[in-house]
Automatic annotation (TrEMBL):
<keyword id="KW-0671">Queuosine biosynthesis</keyword>
<dbReference type="Pfam" id="PF13484">
    <property type="entry name" value="Fer4_16"/>
</dbReference>
<dbReference type="InterPro" id="IPR013542">
    <property type="entry name" value="QueG_DUF1730"/>
</dbReference>
<keyword id="KW-0819">tRNA processing</keyword>
<keyword id="KW-0411">Iron-sulfur</keyword>
<dbReference type="Pfam" id="PF13646">
    <property type="entry name" value="HEAT_2"/>
</dbReference>
<dbReference type="InterPro" id="IPR017896">
    <property type="entry name" value="4Fe4S_Fe-S-bd"/>
</dbReference>
<dbReference type="InterPro" id="IPR017900">
    <property type="entry name" value="4Fe4S_Fe_S_CS"/>
</dbReference>
<dbReference type="GO" id="GO:0046872">
    <property type="term" value="F:metal ion binding"/>
</dbReference>
<dbReference type="GO" id="GO:0052693">
    <property type="term" value="F:epoxyqueuosine reductase activity"/>
</dbReference>
<dbReference type="InterPro" id="IPR004453">
    <property type="entry name" value="QueG"/>
</dbReference>
<keyword id="KW-0560">Oxidoreductase</keyword>
<dbReference type="GO" id="GO:0008616">
    <property type="term" value="P:tRNA queuosine(34) biosynthetic process"/>
</dbReference>
<dbReference type="GO" id="GO:0051539">
    <property type="term" value="F:4 iron, 4 sulfur cluster binding"/>
</dbReference>
<dbReference type="InterPro" id="IPR016024">
    <property type="entry name" value="ARM-type_fold"/>
</dbReference>
<keyword id="KW-0004">4Fe-4S</keyword>
<keyword id="KW-0408">Iron</keyword>
C-alpha cells in the first residue's frame, strides 16, 4: 500500500473505533518546544510530573529510533451529569474534575491506539510503533498541535474547533512514513478569559503555565498545600478547571457518545466525611478505575479536609479530631488542625490544645498553633457580634 492509502485506511479505522479526531505529523524534533521548555524550567514552572530529560520530551527518535511519523488522536468527554448529587449541611460533597469522569482515559486511549497499531501491522507487517498517552516522554499537546488536532490555547490546552478543549489526547510513533497534516491556525484572538479567571495567577502569560501555582496540579501533590491556595481550591478533590470552564470554545459543549467516560455520580461527587477514614483497599475498590486515583488516597483525603474546613462543617469536628490525634501522616494531621481552626468552637479548640502538647512534627505543630489562633479570633468575633446584638 502507498503511504497515502495507509493514511486513508487509518482514518477509516479511526471512524470505526469511535475516535473523534485523528491527525498525522512528521516525527521531526520539536526544537521550538525544547527552547520553551528550557525557559520554563529555568523559571521554576515545572510540575515535577514531567519527563525530566528534555531530549526525550522533544526528540521522537529517543522513544522510537527510526520514527518517521506520529499518529495523534483525540476523544471528547462529557461535561454535564444527570441528577448530580448536591451538598447539604452536614453532608457536604467534593468533586473530581471532568477529566477524571468515567474510566481512566489512559486505558481507553491506549486500547484505541493499540487497535490502530494492529491495523497498521496488517498493512505493513514489519512496522514498528510506540504508543503514548499522557505519561509518555513526548508532549501530547505539541504532537496534537503539529498533527492538526487543534491549536494550543492561551490556557495551555489543545482547543479543537469541534469539541473545544474537552478532549483527551494520545499518540503513536511509527517508523512508517505517512503524509502529514497541516496545523490549525490559532483562533484565541484577543480573548483573555482564561488568564483573567485563573484564581492563582498560574497562567503567567498566553500559553505559559506556572505549574507550581496551578490548582489542577496542586490537588495531585502529596505534601502540605500552601495556605494561600486552600481557600481557592473550593471543594475540588482532584483537578481544577476554571481556565477551561470560561473558554468560549467550550460553551455549550457536552459529548456523551463515549460510554466509558460517563460518570458515576457518587464517585465523582462523593460525600466528604466518609473519605477521611477510607482504607487503601476501599479507596482502590471505589476510585481505582478513575484517572483521579493515580496518586492514591492521601491527596484526595487532604483536599477533602480542606473542603470541610472551608464549609465550616461542625458535624465533621469529631472526624477531624480523630485524624489530628490518631493519623500517622503529618500532612493529614496538620491539615486537620487547619480545618478545625477554620470551623472553631469549644470541641475543636480543646482538641487543638491537647494536640499542641504532644505533637512531635514541627510543621504540624506550626499548623496547630495557627489553628488555635484562628479559634481565638473566631471566638472573639462571635462574642463581639453577640454583644452588639
Amino acid at each position: 500500500m502507498k503511504p497515502a492509502d495507509i493514511k486513508a485506511a487509518l482514518q477509516e479505522a479511526a471512524k470505526e473505533l469511535n475516535i473523534d479526531k485523528i491527525g498525522f505529523a512528521a516525527a521531526d524534533p520539536f526544537d521550538e518546544l525544547k527552547e520553551r521548555l528550557r525557559k520554563h524550567r529555568k523559571a521554576g514552572y515545572e510540575s515535577g510530573f514531567e519527563e525530566p530529560d528534555l531530549e526525550k520530551r522533544t526528540d521522537p527518535q529517543k522513544s522510537l529510533p527510526g520514527a518517521r511519523s506520529i499518529i495523534a488522536i483525540a476523544l471528547a468527554y462529557p461535561t454535564k451529569m444527570d441528577n448530580a448529587p448536591v451538598s447539604k449541611p452536614g453532608a457536604y460533597r467534593g468533586v473530581f474534575c471532568r477529566a477524571s469522569w468515567g474510566e481512566d482515559y489512559h486505558h481507553v486511549l491506549k486500547r484505541k491506539l493499540e487497535a490502530l497499531r494492529r491495523k497498521l501491522v496488517e498493512w505493513v507487517p514489519d512496522a514498528k510503533a510506540e504508543i503514548m498517552v499522557d505519561t509518555g516522554a513526548l508532549s501530547d499537546r505539541a504532537v496534537a498541535e503539529r498533527a492538526g488536532i487543534g491549536w494550543s490555547g492561551k490556557n495551555t490546552s489543545i482547543i479543537t474547533p469541534e469539541f473545544g478543549s474537552r478532549v483527551y489526547l494520545g499518540e503513536m510513533l511509527t517508523d512508517v512514513y505517512l503524509p502529514p497534516d497541516q496545523p490549525i491556525e490559532n483562533a484565541c484572538g484577543e480573548c483573555t478569559a482564561c488568564l483573567d479567571a485563573c484564581p492563582t495567577g498560574a497562567l503567567v502569560g498566553p500559553g505559559q503555565l506556572n505549574s507550581q501555582a496551578c490548582l489542577a496540579y496542586l490537588t495531585q501533590t502529596k505534601g502540605f498545600l500552601a495556605e494561600e491556595y486552600r481557600d481557592k481550591l473550593g471543594n475540588f478533590l482532584y483537578g481544577f478547571e476554571t481556565c477551561q470552564a470560561v473558554c468560549p470554545y467550550n460553551r455549550g459543549k457536552n459529548f456523551t457518545h463515549h460510554p466509558e467516560f460517563q460518570p458515576e455520580a457518587e464517585n465523582v461527587k462523593p460525600l466528604l466525611k466518609p473519605l477521611l477514614h477510607m482504607s487503601n483497599r476501599q479507596f482502590r475498590q471505589r476510585f481505582g478505575s478513575m484517572a483521579g486515583s493515580w496518586r492514591g488516597k492521601k491527596p484526595i483525603q487532604r483536599n477533602a479536609i480542606i473542603a470541610l474546613g472551608r464549609y465550616r462543617d461542625r458535624t465533621a469536628v469529631p472526624d477531624l479530631v480523630r485524624l489530628l490525634e490518631e493519623d500517622p501522616r503529618p500532612v493529614i494531621r496538620g491539615t486537620a488542625a487547619w480545618a478545625l481552626g477554620r470551623i472553631g468552637g469549644g470541641e475543636a479548640a480543646e482538641a487543638l490544645n491537647r494536640a499542641q502538647e504532644v505533637e512531635p512534627d514541627e510543621q504540624v505543630a506550626v499548623e496547630i498553633e495557627h489553628a488555635i489562633e484562628m479559634c481565638r479570633m473566631r471566638e472573639t468575633a462571635d462574642h463581639r457580634t453577640y454583644r452588639e446584638a
